[in-house]
C-alpha cells in the first residue's frame, strides 16, 4: 500500500504525516507539488504547514499547483485524499471540499490538545472509528475558522458531510463547531486538527490519530 | 481590484480595527471591513470579462469574498 504525501514550499508536517503512514503499516511516498506525477499511489495526504507562506489566502496558491490539479482529477474517480490543516485549506481552495477556512474569530493562533467527535465513521479516512467516538488530537492554526453560506451549511448538515466536530470548546470560531468535512462519496476528507501528531505515546497526547491512517488501508483494499 | 469579505462572513480583523479606533476616540466610526487591493498591469486595453475571470480563479475566493473591479478612466 503506497500513500503519497505532498510537499509544497512551506509545508511543515509532511514528515510527520509520512511517519504516521508508516506507523499505520503503509509505505509513504514523497510527492512534490510542482511535478505532474502521482507515482501511482493508492491514496494522498496533503499535510499541514504554511504553503507559499499563506500568501493571498491560506492554501490558495498551492491549490493551483500542477500536482493538486492531478489530485483533483484523481479524486473525482475515487482516489482517497486527506487534507490536514493547511492541506484542508488547499482542498477547499481547489474546490474538492465545500466551504472555506478564515482567520480565527479571536485572531489568536491556537495550539492545544483538542477533543473531537467523529460524526462520520464511514468515510475512507474514518471508518476505523465508531460513530460518535471522541478522540483527542492537537489543533494548531491561525486561520481555521470553517465558514460557508448559511444555505450551504444546511445542505452539508442534511447530507451528513460534517465528518468531525469540535467538542469541549471550539478553538477558532468554526461555524457549527465543524472541524472537518467529507466529499459526498466519503473518499476526500479535510480537517483542521492534526491526527498525524497523535500517533505515538512519546510525542502525542494520545494515539487517537492513527485511525485516520489505518482507515484508508482498508478503504483501498475494499475499493 | 478590491477583494472584500462577503457581508455575511464575519471579519474579526475589521472588528479589531474598529475596537482600536474606538479606544483612540474615533467613536463616529461604527463599522470596519478589511479587504485586499490588487493593482494589475495589463497589456493593451483591459478586458473586464478577462479580469473578472482572473479575480474568480485566483485573486478572490468566491465562497467568502466579493470583487470590485476598478478600470482606469471608468
Automatic annotation (TrEMBL), chain A:
<comment type="pathway">
    <text>Purine metabolism; IMP biosynthesis via de novo pathway; 5-amino-1-(5-phospho-D-ribosyl)imidazole from N(2)-formyl-N(1)-(5-phospho-D-ribosyl)glycinamide: step 1/2.</text>
</comment>
<comment type="subunit">
    <text>Part of the FGAM synthase complex composed of 1 PurL, 1 PurQ and 2 PurS subunits.</text>
</comment>
<comment type="function">
    <text>Part of the phosphoribosylformylglycinamidine synthase complex involved in the purines biosynthetic pathway. Catalyzes the ATP-dependent conversion of formylglycinamide ribonucleotide (FGAR) and glutamine to yield formylglycinamidine ribonucleotide (FGAM) and glutamate. The FGAM synthase complex is composed of three subunits. PurQ produces an ammonia molecule by converting glutamine to glutamate. PurL transfers the ammonia molecule to FGAR to form FGAM in an ATP-dependent manner.</text>
</comment>
<dbReference type="GO" id="GO:0005737">
    <property type="term" value="C:cytoplasm"/>
</dbReference>
<dbReference type="GO" id="GO:0005524">
    <property type="term" value="F:ATP binding"/>
</dbReference>
<dbReference type="Pfam" id="PF13507">
    <property type="entry name" value="GATase_5"/>
</dbReference>
<dbReference type="GO" id="GO:0006189">
    <property type="term" value="P:'de novo' IMP biosynthetic process"/>
</dbReference>
<keyword id="KW-0315">Glutamine amidotransferase</keyword>
<dbReference type="GO" id="GO:0004359">
    <property type="term" value="F:glutaminase activity"/>
</dbReference>
<keyword id="KW-0378">Hydrolase</keyword>
<keyword id="KW-0963">Cytoplasm</keyword>
<feature type="active site">
    <location>
        <position position="196"/>
    </location>
</feature>
<feature type="active site" description="Nucleophile">
    <location>
        <position position="85"/>
    </location>
</feature>
<keyword id="KW-0067">ATP-binding</keyword>
<dbReference type="InterPro" id="IPR010075">
    <property type="entry name" value="PRibForGlyAmidine_synth_PurQ"/>
</dbReference>
<keyword id="KW-0547">Nucleotide-binding</keyword>
<feature type="active site">
    <location>
        <position position="194"/>
    </location>
</feature>
<keyword id="KW-0658">Purine biosynthesis</keyword>
<dbReference type="GO" id="GO:0004642">
    <property type="term" value="F:phosphoribosylformylglycinamidine synthase activity"/>
</dbReference>
<keyword id="KW-0436">Ligase</keyword>
<dbReference type="InterPro" id="IPR029062">
    <property type="entry name" value="Class_I_gatase-like"/>
</dbReference>
<protein>
    <recommendedName>
        <fullName>Phosphoribosylformylglycinamidine synthase subunit PurQ</fullName>
        <ecNumber>6.3.5.3</ecNumber>
        <ecNumber>3.5.1.2</ecNumber>
    </recommendedName>
</protein>
UniProtKB/TrEMBL annotation, chain B:
<dbReference type="GO" id="GO:0004642">
    <property type="term" value="F:phosphoribosylformylglycinamidine synthase activity"/>
</dbReference>
<keyword id="KW-0547">Nucleotide-binding</keyword>
<keyword id="KW-0436">Ligase</keyword>
<dbReference type="InterPro" id="IPR036604">
    <property type="entry name" value="PurS-like_sf"/>
</dbReference>
<dbReference type="GO" id="GO:0009152">
    <property type="term" value="P:purine ribonucleotide biosynthetic process"/>
</dbReference>
<keyword id="KW-0067">ATP-binding</keyword>
<keyword id="KW-0658">Purine biosynthesis</keyword>
<protein>
    <recommendedName>
        <fullName>Phosphoribosylformylglycinamidine synthase subunit PurS</fullName>
    </recommendedName>
</protein>
<dbReference type="InterPro" id="IPR003850">
    <property type="entry name" value="PurS"/>
</dbReference>
<dbReference type="GO" id="GO:0005524">
    <property type="term" value="F:ATP binding"/>
</dbReference>
<keyword id="KW-0963">Cytoplasm</keyword>
<dbReference type="Pfam" id="PF02700">
    <property type="entry name" value="PurS"/>
</dbReference>
Amino acid at each position: 500500500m503506497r500513500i503519497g504525501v505532498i510537499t509544497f514550499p512551506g509545508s511543515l508536517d509532511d514528515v510527520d504525516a509520512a511517519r504516521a503512514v508508516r506507523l499505520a503499516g503503509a509505505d509513504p511516498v514523497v510527492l512534490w507539488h510542482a511535478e505532474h506525477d502521482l507515482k501511482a499511489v493508492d491514496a494522498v495526504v496533503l499535510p499541514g504547514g504554511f504553503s507559499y507562506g499563506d500568501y493571498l489566502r491560506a492554501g490558495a496558491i498551492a491549490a493551483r499547483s500542477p500536482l493538486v490539479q492531478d489530485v483533483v482529477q484523481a479524486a473525482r474517480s475515487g482516489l482517497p485524499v486527506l487534507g490536514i490543516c493547511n492541506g484542508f485549506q488547499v482542498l477547499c481552495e481547489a474546490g474538492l471540499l465545500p466551504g472555506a477556512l478564515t482567520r480565527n474569530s479571536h485572531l489568536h493562533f491556537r495550539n492545544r490538545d483538542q477533543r473531537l467527535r467523529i460524526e462520520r465513521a464511514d468515510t475512507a479516512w474514518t471508518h476505523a472509528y465508531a460513530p460518535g467516538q471522541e478522540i483527542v488530537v492537537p489543533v494548531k492554526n491561525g486561520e481555521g475558522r470553517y465558514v460557508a453560506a448559511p444555505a450551504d451549511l444546511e445542505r452539508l448538515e442534511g447530507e451528513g458531510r460534517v465528518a468531525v466536530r469540535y467538542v469541549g470548546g471550539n478553538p477558532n470560531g468554526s461555524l457549527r463547531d465543524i472541524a472537518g468535512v467529507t466529499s459526498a462519496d466519503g473518499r476526500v476528507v479535510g480537517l483542521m486538527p492534526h491526527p498525524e501528531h497523535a500517533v505515538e505515546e512519546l510525542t502525542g497526547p494520545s494515539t487517537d490519530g492513527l485511525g485516520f491512517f489505518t482507515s484508508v488501508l482498508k478503504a483501498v483494499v475494499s475499493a | 481590484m478590491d477583494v472584500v469579505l462577503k457581508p455575511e462572513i464575519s471579519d474579526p480583523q475589521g472588528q479589531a480595527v474598529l475596537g482600536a479606533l474606538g479606544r483612540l476616540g474615533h467613536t463616529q466610526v461604527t463599522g470596519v471591513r478589511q479587504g485586499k487591493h490588487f493593482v494589475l498591469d495589463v497589456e493593451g486595453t483591459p478586458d473586464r470579462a478577462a479580469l473578472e475571470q482572473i479575480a474568480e480563479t485566483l485573486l478572490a475566493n468566491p465562497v467568502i469574498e466579493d470583487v470590485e473591479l476598478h478600470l482606469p478612466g471608468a
